[in-house]
Automatic annotation (TrEMBL):
Domain of life: Eukaryota
Lineage: Eukaryota, Metazoa, Chordata, Craniata, Vertebrata
Keyword Signal: yes
InterPro entries reported in the protein's UniProt record: Ig-like_dom (IPR007110), Ig-like_dom_sf (IPR036179), Ig-like_fold (IPR013783), Ig_I-set (IPR013098), Ig_sub (IPR003599), Ig_sub2 (IPR003598)
Protein name: Ig-like domain-containing protein
Native organism: Cyprinus carpio
Amino acid sequence: MQVSAWLLWVGWLCTWTEAAHQCQCQCACPPEEQLAQRSERSEGRGHLRHRLTHQRASHRDRAHRRKGSRPVSESGLPRIIHHPSDVVVRVGSPATLSCRAEGNPKPTIQWLRNGQPLDTEKMDAHSQPVVLPEGSLFFFSVVLGRKSQSHEAVYACVARNSAGVATSRNASLHIAALREEFRVQPSDVEVADGEVAVMNCSPPVGYPEPNVAWRKDGILIDSSNEHYTELNGKLIIAPAQKNDSGVYSCIASNTVGVRESRAARLSISGETLSLLLKIMNNLIKHGDSYI
Ligand SMILES: *[C@@H]1O[C@H](CO)[C@@H](O)[C@H](O)[C@H]1NC(C)=O
Ligand SMILES: *[C@@H]1O[C@H](CO)[C@@H](O)[C@H](O)[C@H]1NC(C)=O
């Protein structure tokens, strides 16, 4: 009885001292390893990291020895750790194509443009892209020039050191654009009531490919309305009714901007024409009785 009471008291003391003094009592202490790490941490993180890399390296060495060993230099091969990705930029804007590589010794980075080494010497001084210290390619101001000068191309980075070479994925640099002129402007259309009306339009050349919408008498047409179908820029109205007559314009837009076509008139040659046709039919059918 006495002993268990004493143990209980020691247990309580331990918990109390742990809380109060971050544990100096053996019964609640973390294992030795943790303690060692804690003291190391207080020595500074750099030291710890250093020790850890040492440990990792020696693990690797042991693994290699077991496997019959790869040469040490192979682990120094360049490796692309950040590949460039496709970009779409407006003329005059800056652009960056990322590239980062590791290896031992530290690899140097060169860029390819359409598969050929990028020769910045050949380009106009003001439009020359620069290779940043960590390897990315930076354009101060993107230009759309003649073939050899244009920044619009497919790029890849090449990391090279004494151990070998690594090439990144291809990344394209596209220049966002939207021309002024519509490829096809809508023109005036006249159809009979109940027929299918087609308003033509082909948006200006652009990148990304422009979206097309339509306006009737200045109001945007709801493309979810089944009365209308948009097909390659064209607006199809089926069946065209009297109240479809009006002024239509084609709206092209992408990230660069918005262009509006000329306005074209749709006329529904409704009742007068069909009335005329009916009268003529009647005349033909009953013609003999009139004569
Ligand atoms: C990258 O682009 C270049 C130039 O267009 C081409 O020659 C090469 O085959 C491409 N590489 C890959 C991996 O697609
Ligand atoms: C035209 O009239 C019909 C009913 O006759 C109606 O359902 C339709 O919404 C009208 N269309 C327009 C563009 O006003």
